[in-house]
Amino acid sequence: MYKLDLPKDLAMAATLELRRNREIERQNRIFNSKVRIIGVDKEALDYQVKERKINEETDAHVHEAYAKDLIRNEKIACLLDERQKNDSRTLNKAVEEFRQCSQKPESRREFHLNDPQMLKKDLPARISDHDPRLSVSGVQKLVGEDLNQQERHRMQQEQLREWSLQQQEELHRAREEHTCAEELYNKRRVELDNRAVELQKIEEETRRAVTVATKDFNLAKAAETREKQKLEKQQEEEDNLVEISNLIQGDLLSENPDQAVSVFGPHRVVPDRWKGMRPEQLKEITHFQLQQVQENMRSKEREQLCDLEWKQQRVDAARKALLLERQQARLERELRRALDNTNKQLSEAHRAQKQYLEKEVFTNIPEDGYFAQFNTTSR
Questions:
Q1: Entry pTM
Q2: Concatenated DSSP letters for 68-90?
Q3: Confidence at residue 313, expressed as pLDDT on a 0 to 100 scale
Q4: What DSSP string describes 247-291?
Q5: Contact at 8 Å (CB) between 210 and 65?
């Protein structure tokens, strides 16, 4: 599994790396004899203070940019939430108004079954002789006694006309309300879009300002780094020139042999100032080395002679072993050839004896007995 590095872990790792680099730089300053000084390094302290101020300003800029980004995101979220609530509220209001206008309980077909005023509105079983509610089974009205037919047709047509006008009016009102709701929704959506565009412009300006500030800081940091490197290089060159001058003029490179004389006697020298041996000592060492070389050459010659003797002995032994192997192989071939001849002779003798025996058997058997034996065998 791959482990993802969190921002907190990355910040901790960067802090540890910065501390480790500072410790290495401090050790280089302390253990370097060129730049080591006694007391407080005021330039280093001033540089640390300046670097800390720069880090604090950088952190402040970063936190300010994060805060602005957070505020902008919260504003956008609030606007979107408000837009969603307004849309939901408008939709619910339109649905409720449509129900109040177009879906009244009185307009239902089965309203008369659930009408709470049904008993108050109900008529008696018979009002007059011309009551249209009278049934045949009740014998309250007979066929052919419909005297109010024209009035009833007129009232029905009037009722249909009123229903049609009412439906047209309700439909026209519903269309006007729907158009008004759409206009309000479009206006609100345009306002929210304009607000979102303004917020986006503000965000781009803020991002542009942060980019410019970061660029200026990076340029200033780069200029400061170049100036620091230039000063460090100049100081290093001056230190190198001083060190080279001191080494050239000192006793280390001039190889003054008098500096190796010890105060304890002429036969002793100071190890860290000794520049080498005298010519007499070198000549004596060279003579001894030549003797060692000659002795080594004589030893190598003796070893070579011994190796040649051993090699000659090994060659003689290998030659003798090869001759013995050849002689043994020749004896084995002779034995194999003699054995093959013997086996061949035995095989020929066995074949001749077998032929002789078969010939004797067939010669001594009579003809009748042979056929009788053949018939018995067939049965």
A1: 0.23
A2: HHHHHHHHHHHHHHHHHHHHHHH
A3: 87
A4: HHHSHHHHT-GGGGEETTEEEEE-GGG-----HHHHHHHHHHHHH
A5: yes
